[in-house]
Design brief:
With 217 residues, the chain is of the alpha/beta class. It has seven helices and eleven strands. It has a single domain, classed as Aldolase class I (TIM Barrel), CATH 3.20.20. The chain is 31% helix and 21% strand. The chain has a seven-stranded parallel sheet with strand order 1-2-3-4-7-8-9. A two-stranded antiparallel ribbon has the order 5-6. The longest helix has 18 residues.
């Protein structure tokens, strides 16, 4: 249904505390029915490289979206992590913890120092409105205007931005106008209830995004 609506990517949540959590086997079954052109994204929270690698390989995923657990230093996503994953990574952070430091080193963002040779292993940085207990899926938006500075920082070092957190068909246009992100990520904003998508909300969301695409051409 999401693909038919025009989504570019489908996410599979492997975080056991989420109402959207699926098994690797379930994800593999769904992935097998998706067009090759659609990105298949595994969503992980604080998982080790080994766990992420096994899930990506078994399910046939093309991207790993990795939330940094607030209890684990951001440096856990180090060069070794990036180098040895079987697919590229979307690094997901809470908007509140994504703060550009005063360092003059453009490679340093929120505790990350990514060597240039591994930069292409990062597909994008994702900002979400999570909390310490809930890294994502809160249904709450963050301050997009304050985050515009983050977008500028990412632009300077050649990293793309994905926006998540409280997006709906009614407000995604505003988020795109302010942040001009590479992508937008939605879950609760297109659901009838936690873990159950609403087809019409999905279609309305994609329509709103595509309308912004047309305006930007």
């Amino acid at each position: 249904m999401a693909v038919e609506a025009g989504a570019d990517a489908v996410g599979f949540v492997f975080y056991e505390k989420s109402p959207r959590c699926v098994t690797v086997e379930t994800a593999r079954e769904i992935v097998g029915k998706l067009p090759e052109s659609v990105e298949k994204v595994g969503v992980f929270v604080g998982s080790t490289r080994e766990v992420v690698s096994v899930a990506c390989n078994r399910a046939g995923l093309t991207l790993a979206q990795t939330y940094v657990d607030a209890r684990i230093p951001a440096s856990r996503l180090d060069d070794e992590f990036l180098e040895n994953l079987p697919c590229r990574t979307i690094i997901a952070l809470r908007a509140s913890q994504f703060i550009q430091g005063e360092s003059d080193d453009p490679d340093v963002i929120t505790g990350f120092h990514v060597q240039n040779k591994f930069r292409d292993r990062i597909a994008a940085m994702l900002l979400d409105s999570g909390t310490t207990d809930r890294p994502g899926g809160t249904g709450q938006r963050f301050d997009w205007r304050n985050a515009a500075l983050v977008k500028d920082s990412l632009d300077r070092i050649g990293l793309s931005l994905i926006v998540a957190g409280g997006l709906t068909s009614d407000n995604v246009t505003e988020a795109i106008e302010i942040l001009r992100p590479w992508g937008v990520d939605v879950a609760s904003g297109v659901e009838a209830r936690p873990g159950k998508k609403d087809p019409e909300k999905v279609r309305a969301f994609v329509r709103a995004v595509r309308e912004m695409d047309r305006k930007s051409v």
